[in-house]
Amino acid sequence: MFADAWPLAVLAILLAWPIPVFLARASWPRRHARAAIALWQAVGIAGGLSLIGAPLAVGVAPLDRHLRTGLFVLWRDAFHLRVPASLGLAQEIALALAAVLTVRLVGVTLLSALRIERDLRRQRDAVDLAAEHADRQLRVLEHAAPAAYCLPGTRPRIVITEGTIAALAPDELEAVLAHERAHARWRHELVVQPFVAWESALPLPPARRATAAVTGLVEMLADDHAARSAGRPALARALVAIGGTAGPVPSQRAGDSPKPGATPTLDRVQRLLRAAAPNLTERLIGPAAWFAAILLVAGPTWYVLR
Ligand SMILES: [Zn+2]
């Protein structure tokens, strides 16, 4: 009974609490931001699949001890408008729970993506009207307070204020622009958006941890890009002068100004200036994280399809 449900339920619990807590506290992602993002994405995908898979497996358990073949029997009966006689109330509740979770996760993800896209379009239109067009992407707002942020998408905008230009030396300004252009070029919003959507669908501490961690990690990726083109000292000085820049996904609440990146400015400056050469163990953690990410998605997929 429940042959496939227990491993999926255990995996769902592990991915819902201890693994996100462990990952959020780890320090190695500062050196391997890309691998850490892949691992967070794998945690999200495997977590979602196991969260839906576990009640599904409970629901189809009387039909077959394997989830895949049980689902096939359920589908075949549903196609002939029959409810399998062996399903009791507990199985029907489990199937309903799986259906509600699926609709909520998929529905909220789609709605959240549409809402973010609509907000970005409005903000793009507003800065196109209000700001000076410095080039195809760069918009300069007439405002004394220093601020720099990216409005990502297929037609991205990099927005800075006159206060930013006044506060920074040329190499520092170049570093800030390189950081924002990295967000735009590598479509960092597509990395962060699913986590924002999952947090809306399941507003629980692990989802909040995941969103905060991934938002911080894309800031690190953009910092690394800017440091390569403008130098670490220039970027660090710029961060000290104007504070953190906004993350690549706008706040979902109407009227909010862009949020500062999740990685605190001081932490980002320290990361830029204290980059010691990694030892062998630190170098191996990156490939290990990629392997863990692949295993986390491939393992449960194989288990269900076997
Ligand atoms: Zn940024």
UniProtKB/TrEMBL annotation:
<keyword id="KW-0812">Transmembrane</keyword>
<feature type="transmembrane region" description="Helical">
    <location>
        <begin position="93"/>
        <end position="114"/>
    </location>
</feature>
<dbReference type="Pfam" id="PF01435">
    <property type="entry name" value="Peptidase_M48"/>
</dbReference>
<comment type="similarity">
    <text>Belongs to the peptidase M48 family.</text>
</comment>
<keyword id="KW-1133">Transmembrane helix</keyword>
<feature type="domain" description="Peptidase M48">
    <location>
        <begin position="116"/>
        <end position="191"/>
    </location>
</feature>
<feature type="transmembrane region" description="Helical">
    <location>
        <begin position="36"/>
        <end position="58"/>
    </location>
</feature>
<keyword id="KW-0472">Membrane</keyword>
<keyword id="KW-0482">Metalloprotease</keyword>
<keyword id="KW-0378">Hydrolase</keyword>
<keyword id="KW-0479">Metal-binding</keyword>
<dbReference type="InterPro" id="IPR052173">
    <property type="entry name" value="Beta-lactam_resp_regulator"/>
</dbReference>
<keyword id="KW-0862">Zinc</keyword>
<protein>
    <submittedName>
        <fullName>M48 family metalloprotease</fullName>
        <ecNumber>3.4.24.-</ecNumber>
    </submittedName>
</protein>
<keyword id="KW-0645">Protease</keyword>
<feature type="transmembrane region" description="Helical">
    <location>
        <begin position="284"/>
        <end position="305"/>
    </location>
</feature>
<feature type="transmembrane region" description="Helical">
    <location>
        <begin position="6"/>
        <end position="24"/>
    </location>
</feature>
<dbReference type="InterPro" id="IPR001915">
    <property type="entry name" value="Peptidase_M48"/>
</dbReference>
<dbReference type="GO" id="GO:0008237">
    <property type="term" value="F:metallopeptidase activity"/>
</dbReference>
